[in-house]
Each structure stands twice: as structure tokens, then as C-alpha cells.
Design brief:
Elements: E1 3-9, H1 15-24, E2 28-30, H2 35-47, E3 53-57, H3 65-79, E4 83-89, H4 92-102, H5 117-129, E5 137-140, H6 146-157, E6 165-172, E7 183-186, H7 207-213, H8 217-240, E8 244-251, H9 257-272, E9 277-282, E10 287-291, H10 302-305
Parallel strand pairs: 1-3, 1-4, 2-3, 4-5, 6-8, 6-9, 7-8
Antiparallel strand pairs: 9-10
Amino acid sequence: MKQIVVLTGESGAGKTSALRHLEDLGFYAIDNIPLSLVEELIDLIEESSKIEKAVLVVDARSPEFEQKARELFSRLKERHPNLSIWYLTARKEKLLNRFKETRRPHPFQRFYPDKNLEELIEREKEVYEKLFSLFDRTIDTTNLTVHDLKRLIKELLLLQKPQLQVTFLSFGFKFGVPQTADNVFDVRFLPNPHFVPELKRKTGMDQEVADYIFRFPESQEALKKIKELVLFTLPQYEKEGKAYVTYAVGCTGGQHRSVAFAEILAEEVAREFPEFQIFVEHREQGVRRRVSEEGCSGRPPEELSGLPSGEPEKGRKPLQGR
């Protein structure tokens, strides 16, 4: 059976790169097809003895797309069980940056000449929102490099489930909220080691800092609730087809509380989801590292890890000196 992919999605989300990658993988590639020609073209591809794989870009640049795309996509999925529709998207802020970098006009400018770039991006997103139920795969390219996108496409074509990459990111609110965050947790309400002289110059990567933070019941309860939400949402993100998810934890300066939370969350989630790639990143310290199923190089305080008080965990080292 032939393999046919219809690429659609927002301008600036990476359809051109995806098309190029698929062409490199042996797909017959066709870009910017008028909706009135799509069905006829796919029929010709089905009949051709020389084309086994094809990718077609069908998107909102076509003037009749908003009025006819749902009906067209529904017919295609009904008539061609070997056809899949991939939707490429990215966050508005990322799309704005991409258009500013390339200095290219947005395709919707010819439809709405009085709207600014941000309004055009929002308008195009509205068009695609009505079609979500028809997409077989949603690819969010907000945090993807060209190489990441190529890897993801290969995995999709091999019918392998893409390995979700999860980052637990600590940051300081006084330096700004990270734009890459999918979820933001504020832990500024918890006791602050900054005001403890012997802990002030240390970070949440130091065990004594983590021990101080998590001696308070409210810290333990906050960790429990955040972890519950993370464990609930991760399978939903995977089901949606996301390749990257970032959980950001913020405190005032990004040195103590948020760092300790990110460390423990990364370790706990790595244990729960060994099939995912788990990273911990501390923005204000310039640290990023992979966390294995066995855990990161630190550990939660003893009362949270289930160890008897005073009993060291075998094979683990304290965080001092990092």
C-alpha cells in the first residue's frame, strides 16, 4: 500500500523543512496545492506505478481553505486509508520571531492587509482550530531544531512512538519567565534558604539546601501536588504527539527553592517514565543534564524518598561540592 502524507499547518511552523526532509527520504513532494486539485492529484498518485510515497502540502494559503478544508480532509481520510494528515504548529511568540528573522510577509497579509503580524498569526491559528479532530499527528516545532524535526519525522515514518523529551527547568522570576515553558509553577511562597546564612551562597543542588526546604510540610505538600499534575499531564502530551514538554519551576532568584524542586521532580518522573528523555535544567546556573531512570546525581530528602532517617542510599552521593 502506498504511503501518502498531507502536510498542513501554520505559516512559519516548519512545513517547508518537513517537506524537504520527507523528499530526502524518498517521498514525491508537492507544495502549495490548490484545494480543487488535491483529490485528482492523489488519485493520480494512487494509479501511478512509479510513485510509492508522496507528500503534499495543503494549507491556508489557498483562498478557499477555511471554507472547504474540513470537507476535503474528511473525504480524503474516508477514501484513502493509507493517507495521514500531519499538522505543524508553534507558539505565537516563536512564529513572531521566525517571521521577524526571515523578514518575509505573512501569507495572510493578502487576505487581511490591515492586520499586523501578530493578528495575522492569531487569525491563521483560528482557521486550524476547527480542523483539530481530523489531524492524525500534531507536531509542535516551538522548541525543535531542524535536526530535531528530521529525527521526529523518521520516527513517525517508522511507526515508532516519538520519545518524548521532558525538561524540568528552574528559573528566577526576577529574571523573567522562560518562554519555552509549557507549565509554570511558582514556589515563592515557601521558606527561603536565602535568609539562612550558611545556605545563602549554596543552591538547590546542594543536599543541605534541599533538606532545609523539604523539612517544612508545605514544601512536601507542594511537591506532592505538582508531581501529581505532572504525572497526569505527561501521558496526555504524549497522546497529543508533542515531542518536547517543559515544566518550569520558579522562585525569586532561581537559586534555591526552584532548583531543589526541579531536581527532585526530574528524578521522580524519570523513575515513573523510563521511556521518556528526562532533563533537568537550571537557567540561572547555566546547567542542563540528562536524568537517567536511576535518578539524577542528587536525591530528595530522606523523608521524601522513603529511607529511614540517617540511612544513606546505596550508590548515591551527596550533592555538596557541585
